[in-house]
Amino acid sequence: MKGRQLDLSSEAPAPPGTGEAAAEQRSFLGVRFDCCGIYARVYKNAAGDAYEGRCPKCAQPVRFDVGPGGTSSRFFGVS
């Protein structure tokens, strides 16, 4: 393959709508799943009325409803 070069030091351009700017716009909660001792992010669902996710190891579901009178906390532990 004479004359061809591969530059491994450069990052590929991100597709439109992705990257740091898009990641900053996506709301999440930090959750420590006590069942498996694992931390994960839980993101808002499509309707935007709750944060829903699962433990990455045992798939225990978790749901945090969004509504008036809620909390400003961003990190939680669930058992």
Task: Describe what is shown at a glance.
The protein has 79 residues and is mainly β. The chain contains one helix and five strands, in the order H-E-E-E-E-E.
Biggest sheet, spatial arrangement of strands: 4-3-2-1-5
Q: What class, by secondary structure content?
A: mainly beta
Provide the low-confidence segments as ranges.
Answer: none
Distance between the termini: 56 Å
User: What is the tally of helical segments?
Assistant: 1
Strand runs, count: 5
Whole-angstrom Rg: 19 Å
Q: How would you sum up the major sheet?
A: 5 strands, mixed
**Mean pLDDT over all positions:** 83
Shape: elongated
Tell me the series of helices and strands, N- to C-terminal.
HEEEEE
Give the strand content.
Answer: 25-35%
Helix content: under 10%
Structure characteristics:
about 80 residues; mainly beta; 5 strands; about 35% strand; elongated
Report on the structure:
This protein is mainly beta. It is 8% helix and 34% strand. It contains one helix and five strands; from the N terminus they run H-E-E-E-E-E. Strands 4-3-2-1-5 form a five-stranded mixed sheet, with no helix packed on it. The model has no long low-confidence stretch (mean pLDDT 83).
What is the topological layout?
Elements: H1 20-25, E1 28-33, E2 38-44, E3 50-54, E4 61-65, E5 75-78
Parallel strand pairs: 1-5
Antiparallel strand pairs: 1-2, 2-3, 3-4
